[in-house]
Specification:
2 domains, 9-stranded mixed β-sheet, binds ligand BES, 503 residues, Leucine Aminopeptidase, subunit E, domain 1, binds zinc ion, binds manganese (II) ion, alpha/beta
Length: 503
């Protein structure tokens, strides 16, 4: 997709369709009124008919009259005071969904209505719209099907219409946004692929291909080496399947090298290619969703590749423990005691609490590789989706300053997080008769306990993002189809780029 920025007026832009966002109520007194006149009053007629609702994401397609675009698509963005980064990029994604199955090759988006309501104006709008258009072009059906009637259009040229804006700055921002969108889509595509397609080995091969493509260092640790290193928790899960586990380690910059903020940041992602629960097997209802239990891993692999595209050489470590959690003769049993890489003895009371086992060893390994700051991303608990639903990611941290930095990157990225407390008193329920701790206590406060468990494997500032609610949608949204959302990819990229050295 080519991206072009123009300072022409929206009615003078030739394209298959012109997108006119409506922020608040349509204002026929300004340039929207001029666009209406060019369409011979189509827009005001729609307004009179009651078609231009101010409810966010409602849209309509009008004939264009003398405006140069083939058609005009209006889409409501909701009140100006509520227009944040997330909404701006979702408005762009929603236009792509509105155009599913339509014939659109050149798409023009009028930035001004969004730019007027956003901090950062046209430049920020250009980035978010480009990202939203790219993300809006993703549909998981394209993974296995060659064609289907509701396929998103393949846009050849995106024209950003910003009369009076700095076109060079907007073009640069749009390029950044498109790369961010590509990265999120890469994570979504990988996460949505099925478990008979993406085993831990295949995930490692995908990581390898990306590493070669972007000049990243990569090391893939198999079961023998992992056992020898002492990754007892990782292997307790990994040994249960015929598909052997892989600890995927990727790096940009040099080993232990610190970035412009003095950090050696490690991003760690849960890579359970299928979570049957193991011996503590899950009910069959919705078990098919558990192919997406590798989303955290897909997210960190995509994020380090995106950082390599935007700011090559920025120090960053990505660790993705990849396993399949299966029941079988080699599986861990409830009551098994295993020794973690950090030396702690863990009593596996529930084999379905497998994410924290593989992540704990991955966190220790990241510290051994020189990480000074950790962030993990994981589809860790059903409890987080009951608490926060599919639009807000749960966050835990052992250091408030670092937690604030991560959540700040989230704001920058237009992603929503809610910090949850690590309640010290609940630790008594994680105590084991045999070892240092159990991996699963009683279900009350289970979300907090998952955080308490992981904290045992961090000696450095660490944040845990539980994306079990936000990683994929069960039902389509106006801005996204069902399936993987790419959540927290942008947050991780912003967080890493904050430490990039100016080129
Ligand atoms: N992968 C699941 C969590 C999950 C559930 C993700 C639903 C997405 C949707 C995780 O491994 C798991 O099984 N968690 C258990 C933990 C419990 C055994 C302590 C859970 O949430 O029930
Ligand atoms: Mn599980
Ligand atoms: Zn899981």
């Amino acid at each position: 997709m080519r991206v072009r920025v123009t300072t022409d007026q929206p009615w003078d832009v030739a394209a298959d369709i012109l997108v006119a966002p409506i922020v608040g109520d349509p204002d026929f007194g300004g340039p929207f009124g001029e666009l209406d006149r060019r369409t011979h009053g189509e827009l005001s007629a729609l307004q009179a008919f009651g078609e231009l609702r101010s409810k966010r994401f409602t849209s309509s397609i009008a004939a264009s009259g003398d405006a140069k675009a083939g058609r005009v698509l209006t889409i409501s963005a909701g009140p100006a005071e509520d227009l944040d980064r997330e909404t701006a990029s979702r408005i762009a994604s929603a236009t792509m969904h509105r155009l599913a199955g339509r014939h659109v090759k050149t798409l023009a988006v009028w930035l001004d209505p969004l730019a007027a309501a956003l901090d950062g104006g046209a430049v920020v709008a250009a980035e978010l719209v480009a990202r939203g258009i790219v993300e809006g072009s993703f549909d998981p059906k394209t993974i296995y099907l060659d064609s289907f009637p509701t396929a998103p259009p393949v846009i050849e040229e995106l024209i950003l219409v910003a009369p009076g804006a700095d076109t060079a700055a907007c073009a640069k921002a749009a390029e950044r946004g498109a790369i961010m969108g590509d990265g999120a889509n890469l994570a979504r595509r990988l996460a949505n692929r099925s478990a008979n397609d993406v085993s831990p080995e295949v995930l490692a091969e995908e990581a390898y291909t990306l590493a070669k493509q972007h000049g990243l260092w990569i090391d893939v640790i198999g079961p023998e080496k992992a056992t020898e290193l002492g990754m007892g928790m990782f292997m307790a899960v990994g040994r249960g399947s015929d598909n052997p586990p892989r600890m995927i380690v990727m790096r940009s910059g040099k080993k232990g090298e610190t970035d412009a903020l003095g950090r050696h940041l490690a991003i760690i992602g849960k890579g359970v290619c299928f979570d049957s629960g193991g011996i503590s097997i899950k009910p069959s209802d919705r078990m098919e969703e558990m192919k997406m239990d590798k989303t955290g891993a897909c997210t960190v692999i995509a994020a380090i590749a995106t950082v390599a595209r935007l700011a090559p050489g920025t120090p960053l470590l990505a660790v993705a423990p990849a396993v399949e959690n299966m029941p079988g003769p080699h599986s861990a049993r409830p009551g098994d005691l295993v020794k973690a890489l950090n030396g702690k003895w863990v009593d596996i009371t529930n084999t379905d609490a497998e994410g924290r086992l593989i992540l704990g060893d991955a966190m220790t390994y990241a510290e051994q590789q020189g990480a000074t700051h950790l962030v993990d991303v994981a589809t860790l608990t059903g409890a987080v989706s009951r608490a926060l639903g599919d639009l807000v990611t749960g966050a835990f941290g052992n250091d408030q300053g670092w937690t604030d930095s991560v959540l700040g990157a989230g704001k920058q990225a237009g992603e929503r997080y809610w910090q949850l407390p690590l309640v010290e008193e609940y630790w008594t329920e994680m105590e084991s008769w045999y070892g240092d701790m159990v991996n699963s206590g009683s279900s009350e406060g289970g979300l907090v306990k998952s955080g308490l468990f992981l904290r045992e494997f961090a000696t450095k500032p660490w944040v845990h993002l539980d994306i079990a609610g936000t990683a994929y949608y069960r039902r389509a949204k106006p801005w996204a189809p069902r399936g993987a959302t790419g959540v927290s990819h942008a947050t991780l990229v912003e967080l890493a780029l904050a430490g990039a050295r100016p080129a």
